[in-house]
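Q: Trace token order:
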Amino acid sequence: MPALNAPDSVEATVRRRGSDLVELSHAIHAEPELAFGEYRSCAKAKALAAERGFEMNPVAGLDTAFRANFGSGPLVVGVCAEYDALPEIGHACGHNIIAASAVGTALALAEVADDLGLTVALLGTPAEESGGGKELMLRAGTFDDVAVAVMVHPGPSDIAGARSLALSEVTVHYRGKESHAAVAPHLGVNAADAVTVAQVAIGLLRQQLAPGQMTHGVVTDGGQAVNVIPGQAALKYAMRAVESDSLRELEGRMYACFAAGALAAGCEYEIEEAGPAYAELRPDRWLADVCRSEMRRLGREPVPAEIEAGLPLGSTDMGNVTHVLPGIHPIIGVDAGGATVHQRAFAAAAAGPSADLAVVDGAVMLARAVVALAEDTAQRDRVLTAQQRRAAS
């Protein structure tokens, strides 16, 4: 029997390990863990790679981040695995699928690493939903030698060149003065009033938001007893925009609304950033085209390229990575009966038959895309040259 070529070889490896990858996806799904607390999920993601001989290393001082290396070639490929869940609704964003597909991609590329001159770096990236694990890893140098980064995310449809919105999140703490609400309300300073005024200001601001800007938030503390003037109150808000400069402009206007609440109520206030800001995704065009072709080869129907840019899909810290080095974050379709990510029905579907297929198809797609890059002299030189320039700067 003739030897398989590299694209067919990586696909065969993924399919051979398919049951292990699905088992990993289900195991992570069954025990959802929140940002920076993904201890069991992290260990599960590392296990199959460790068995294959990947060298495990902690990174960025984060307990649930890791880098697992295989090979010693000059083209370093980072394969990003996410595994954090959402409060109360578990894996409604399908990060169990992401982790399993990433492991499958890494295992497949390990089989051809020597032939293609690769170093395969499986990157465990915690706290995507809140906390910006990838940005923290970027700052710590985890991606410094990585020439290209890949990952796949589940969603209700297949999108090769998926985009995302820039994002920042803040918590606003208001401090007033408690007093009896009937006996001496005039002696109190009502922190909940500051929240109300801020929200009214934000509601009026929405009419003047620039295209692509949006904001959404919740009251996290509005007082504890109806007969006590609240001395403390708090809001948590997310701000999004189509790109980072627009996000900065929106932040300035939102901060004025927060200040207006404090001024009107006579409160002190403090704005606390929830974590690093997320930049918008900049998918590598060449890799996106390869992924689109692979989706079609696998029998999927990706969204046409000409309308991809009009379909922002929330926000992700993978955007930060793609501002530093070439990267790809395609969406792999999962049939969730019409539900989309961050809904309970999607959490249930993330361990169903369509999700299991997405685990395997996602790993096949990413592995074959990396092989295509490694075997194309011009594209290989492009990403290697960019990495060398980053290293020299």
Summary: The longest strand covers residues 166-175.
